[in-house]
Amino acid sequence: MKLLEVVKTSDTSPQTISTLLTFGRELGKTTVECSDTPGFIVNRLLVPSLAEAVRMLERGVATVEDIDTAMRLGAGHPMGPLQLADYVGLDTVLFILQGWHEKIPECGALQCSRNFKKTCFRRETWKQNRRRIL
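Predicted structure:
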């Protein structure tokens, strides 16, 4: 990974943040700074988008292949959100969403659909579509 997210809390001194940012740059990383929040920056933006891709699939908006192709070609992502969710682990994505929802129940983007497991773990259809993508 080229990125290092440096997370600060109310107890983190400015000197500690500065040291970590410098250390990250010395390792050849691009560093970013953020407050302590579930998922920090990258995963806080990424995981809800994976959940939305599953909700789109559930609603019949598009197929697995079309959702992933649209994000690869239209947004320049190296892989589509459903392929990425499968790569990360569907059980892992579900676990993250459930944990975040417990901590921040008012954030609708962090809610997984009622049928997340049923949709994602319908493996026969998913695997057939995924084979065409990979």
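Summary: The chain has seven helices and two strands.
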